[in-house]
Amino acid sequence: MTNSFDDIPFFDEEPEHAPRKPTAAAAPAAGGGLGIAARAMAARDQSRAPDYLSGLNPEQREAVESIEGPVLVLAGAGTGKTRVLTTRIAHILATGRAFPSQILAVTFTNKAAREMKERIGVLVGGAVEGMPWLGTFHSIGVKLLRRHAELVGLRSDFTILDTDDVIRLIKQLIQAEGLDDKRWPARQFAGMIDTWKNKGLTPKDIPEGDARAFANGKGRELYAAYQARLKSLNACDFGDLLLHPIDIFRRYGDILKDYHQKFRYMLVDEYQDTNTAQYMWLRLLAQRPKDVPQNVCCVGDDDQSIYGWRGAEVDNILRFEKDFPGAKVIRLERNYRSTEHILGAAGHLIAHNEGRLGKTLFTERTSPDDEKVIVHAAWDSEEEARAVGEEIEQLQRNKHNLNDMAILVRASFQMREFEDRFVTLGLNYRVVGGPRFYERLEIRDAMAYFRLVCQPADDLAFERIVNTPKRGLGDTTIRTLHDYARARDVPMLAGAADLIETDELKPKARKALFDVIQSFKRWSELLETTPHTELAEQILEESGYTDMWKNDKSAEAPGRLENLKELIRSMEAFESMRGFLEHVSLVMDAEQNEDMDAVSIMTLHSAKGLEFETVFLPGWEEGLFPHQRALDEGGRSGLEEERRLAYVGITRAKRRCHIWFVSNRRIHGLWQSTMPSRFLDELPAAHVDVAESESSYGGYGRGGYGQSRFDRADPFANSYSTPGWKRAQANKTDATRDNWGSRSGHAVERIGYGESGPRTKTIDGELVAKSVASTPSKFSVGDRVFHIKFGNGNVSSIEGNKLTIDFDKAGQKRVLDGFVEKA
DNA sequence: ATACCGACCTTTTTT
DNA sequence: AGGTCGGTAT
């Protein structure tokens, strides 16, 4: 959900119930089937297409106009997916097939929902206000749940807990069980619950093995206790926002039936990212009795499924035609974003995956000036950052906007080096998806105050701020109160009111607690009468919270006060405090200022859906990308997901894509010698250039890299000495065949890298194939060698061009032979 | 209550 | 290596 305040008040009936009777000629006829007027309109559309349909290509147009029945749109990167979705909605509305409130449109992120709302607004002309059911799975889940909360034992003003609250709650439960919270970390259990909920499993459904694996076999009880505790707190976690509606739909057939009637058209974005729970939710809504049409349209790209580790099931998209017999499948393969080199490189890479639905992107927008994808090598990550910085400055001198450039990394620790470098250069950058505004300490504290005012049963909020700022309510008092409240099964705030009537507490604590209770009583009363921003300020003042930071002399304090002001400011856009709280719990983002011209730095994951003129992809090394852990834990499918991530990365680029790898990277504090990513070997020579050293960092003498005796002696070598590089050079002339555009079926022979050593051959026309055969090592076991970073050592074994060396100082390392020379 | 020290972890991230 | 968190010691 976005900042629309038409969603509040929650428990009011939806306005869409009012215009039941068709009022205009275009109104939908009841009970399926099109009314005559609607059909007439549709017919008219055939002959004279409305504006919004012009400019669509035939496939897009088909996807927009195939309104009735299940449709799967396989939309490759940059093929106009969002355009299809939004135009489709506009089309449904314009042809009068449904009211805005009868369309259910689901996205994964708030960003996507926001964008869709905007774009529909442009098409339809502002009437989007009336699309109450366009939003994320979670925001729609909240909406459903507010209406039917009592059916799952909640009140409709329930609170939504975030990850932090959940962990604190679980920790309490673990301690209450008398378990060692050290041995059984709450964080880990929260992760398990999340995984279970992603799969749609309630405590009774979880596998015995899972249940046993945690807390001496108490996993299941703990999960059940957690759910019970949520209920008593009148609270939900994120997973519940999906699971509770599923539960309601299953148990109350008449309610589900209502929604079947209500949602005439359903659209789902990024279908490849749905997890099992979301899938169940969708199926319940979309699979209807025979007499109700299944007008569901899912849009996705199996090649961009990168959230498997988070429970997404690519199978959902692969299975669509089975789930919805007679479904129409439409492929969008015409790309409007990238040059043919970029598409060629990406397409050839992704063709190495099996189990694809198979799409090949093409473009007609080619020019001889198009730059190929360029692969660069650097000695280490520092040099990588330096060189990328130089390229960016060069582009900047040629009048390119920083806003059109992005650095996409595999793991966030890679960002730091770039930030450091850009700070030195004075180059503007922005980190996308960094630490979130609403996760900051002071914001969470303030929010806890507001939450408790709105929802006095929110014990987590109570415990968070009861002694913040310090009021002399220490652990003992809280413990007493906690036990007292739990024994009576009342919320802590209510329990506190009773407790101060007794003499269980010391007078000092009693007085302090009394004051707290009085304050909250006062604020709660003001809630109905005072404007919420004013009340918020008052709360922070009267509680002493702002004073606490004013008196704090630490360096962060002024910033925190500034953030609090910002928090109040952002409340202004909302109608009520409750509405604001809900927004924050669902939308953890705070919008960034887009005004500044700056290079974006972000992870590959958060880059999905975005595009840039120029994209830099650093860190293409084995172990980092593909990430070792993805390989260890995910096996073959883990590797394929990494490859999709690489595909996503390349396809973000419109005109220029520069890939980097380094020979040495510091991981967990120690320098490791690294090997170029296997993905580099999977790029097609026809669309990829290998950068010449002089152009990118010539004259930069770094202790011999690029100038060693070894290099000069090597017939292949320019200044690049990595084998991957040499192989690239060597193959450049051989690989005359352009394999770009081949379907995935052309894979010839593949031997997994992970299990059985170096692969021998992959796909025709690749940069590189046979590392073992083509570059026999010039070293032998026992040779005394020198490595620039690790010093002297002895070769202990050789595998192709990879040497295992016992270094005198650095210990045993595996190193590519290009990096050592005979000592 | 605060300060200091040691243990631990370190892919990706939404909601 | 480095940052964070949690526990202990003052």
Automatic annotation (TrEMBL):
Leader peptide range in chain numbering: none
- Which keywords fit this entry according to its UniProt record? ATP-binding, Coiled coil, DNA-binding, Helicase, Hydrolase, Isomerase, Nucleotide-binding
**Family matches, as Pfam families:** UvrD-helicase, UvrD_C
Q: Where is this region: Disordered?
A: 1-29
Under catalytic activity, the entry for this protein gives: Couples ATP hydrolysis with the unwinding of duplex DNA by translocating in the 3'-5' direction; ATP + H2O = ADP + phosphate + H(+)
Q: Where would I find the UvrD-like helicase C-terminal domain in this sequence?
A: 340-609
Q: Which family does it belong to?
A: Belongs to the helicase family. UvrD subfamily.
Designated name of the protein: DNA 3'-5' helicase
Q: What is the scientific name of the source organism?
A: Rhizobium oryzicola
The taxonomy runs: Bacteria, Pseudomonadati, Pseudomonadota, Alphaproteobacteria, Hyphomicrobiales
